[in-house]
Write a structure and sequence with these properties.
By secondary structure, the chain is an alpha/beta fold. The protein has 2 domains: about 5-60 and about 320-425, Aspartate Aminotransferase, domain 1 (Alpha-Beta Complex), CATH 3.90.1150; about 85-320, Type I PLP-dependent aspartate aminotransferase-like (Major domain) (Aspartate Aminotransferase, domain 2, 3-Layer(aba) Sandwich), CATH 3.40.640.10. Helix content is about 35%, strand content about 15%. Helix 3 packs parallel to helix 10 (about 305-320), helix 11 (about 325-345) packs parallel to helix 14 and helix 13 packs across helix 14 (about 410-425). About 50% of the residues are buried.
Length: about 425
């Protein structure tokens, strides 16, 4: 592969963009080398500025569940743009996509659209605090809920120890209201709850974590969170920015059979355009302005282009529920093939998968939380990443990110990927 033009473009970008990128993981700091600049995508493939083609396992970090430049989405956006790109006033489209989303997802009555997953999670937490009259939240180490201050907190040293900021600019005051728990460790959650009686507004969790690599919940973990929240009058928030409309039509709630009080969405719900949303039952959502006291707003929220794209995507998924079985089968096929390829070269690994989310961890230790994920984020991953990249396979440039499978992938694409993994494994 030649990356001459990408290298020149990155050098130019560094002059005007911090780190040359608009989102840090794109800078390849976790794997080394120069970011690849893309110019086009269609179906399962990306094409870079040097005219290299890649089989894509990032898929815009999840939204392209039916493939890049999905025709119904492209057509919907094109036609809508001709009518105006933004009005600053309500449109029928907002109601149409809201009605469809509510019909697809369990346990929600109303939904509000925003512009990103960060906004969705931030607003859900504010609403939870306003609704309960409590200030503290519990989040889990390694779960990413966007870059709002309340979420950029690392663990303290004990059950009643407050978290500390892990980014400059996040205040100690903010950190005091965020309690850090260990994913898949319900005893740790119980200890935190006991140390903060009547003070916790919400527990926010990725029902299938995707920012430590793919880490599914252990059997009983989500169910136990639900019981704790019911017992303590705490709101359970599922961050389904990754899992919503991807793991099932009704997301992780449907797949796992566990009800959340509030749900945050992003990625798939926007069809590739910047869209987020949060939803809950009526009495919670009606606590939002303009009919309730909790303020939330956005000039471009419900943007007609974004709503058109999201509506086209949700309609396609709703009308073809068999897509989830196809995605499951393709992801299982990839898992089996990669496991055989890595085993043949004696590489130590663990593969985690849930639905169409999957990741390879270079460790034989079961990867169930941030600590065990850290064991696997070793020197093998950058070699693995670049080996696949050189063979036209594009995976996330970080050991701490899940892969996303698209229905546009063919079994020939999967076989080509498995063959590339086999070749790279022999070099690790």
């Amino acid at each position: 592969m030649r990356y001459e033009r990408s290298s020149r473009l990155f050098a130019a970008a560094e002059q005007f963009l911090p780190g040359g990128v608009n989102s840090p993981v794109r800078a390849f700091r976790g794997v080394g080398g120069t970011p690849i600049f893309m110019k086009q995508a269609k179906g399962a493939y990306l094409f870079d500025e040097d005219d290299n083609r890649y089989i894509d396992y990032i898929n815009s970090w999840g939204p392209a569940i039916l493939g890049h430049a999905f025709d119904p989405v492209v057509e919907a956006v094109t036609q809508r743009a001709k009518l105006g790109t933004s009005f600053g006033a309500p449109t029928q489209l907002e109601t149409e996509i809201a009605e469809l989303a509510v019909s697809m997802v369990p346990n929600i009555d109303k939904i509000r659209f925003v512009n990103s997953g960060t906004e969705a999670c931030m607003s859900a937490v504010r609403l939870a605090r306003g609704f309960t009259g409590r200030d503290k939240i519990i989040k889990f180490a390694g779960c990413y809920h966007g870059h709002a201050d309340a979420f950029l907190i690392q663990a303290g040293s004990g059950a009643s120890t407050f978290g500390t900021p892990n980014s400059p600019g996040v205040t100690q005051g903010t950190a005091q209201d965020t309690l850090m728990a260990h994913y898949n460790d319900i005893e740790n959650v119980e200890t935190l709850v006991a140390a903060n009686p009547g003070k916790i507004a919400a527990i926010i969790v990725e029902p299938v974590a995707g920012n430590m690599g793919c880490i599914p919940p252990q059997p009983g973990f989500l169910e136990a969170l639900r019981r704790i929240c019911d017992r303590e009058d705490i709101l359970l928030i599922f961050d389904e920015v990754m899992t919503g409309f991807r793991l099932a039509a009704g997301g992780a709630q449907e797949l796992c059979g566990v009800n959340a009080d509030m749900v945050a969405f992003g990625k798939v719900i926007g069809g590739g355009l910047p869209v987020g949303a949060f939803a809950a039952r009526k009495e919670i959502m009606d606590y939002l302005a303009p009919i309730g006291p909790v303020y939330q707003a956005g000039t471009l929220s419900g943007n007609p282009l974004a709503m058109a794209a999201g509506l086209a995507m949700l309609q396609a998924l709703n009308n073809d529920r068999a897509v989830y079985a196809r995605l499951e089968e393709k992801t299982a096929y990839l898992e089996k093939g990669m496991a055989e390829a890595l085993s043949a070269s004696g590489v130590e690994f663990t593969i985690n998968r849930r639905g169409s989310m999957i990741s390879v961890h270079f460790s034989t230790v079961a990867v169930t939380d941030l600590r065990t994920a850290s064991f696997a984020a070793n020197e093998k991953f950058p070699k693995f990443f670049h080996g696949l990249l050189d063979r036209g396979i594009y995976i996330a440039p970080s050991a701490y990110e899940t892969w996303f499978i698209t229905d546009a992938l063919t079994y020939d694409d999967l076989d080509a990927t498995i063959s590339a993994v086999r070749e790279v494994a022999a070099t690790l």
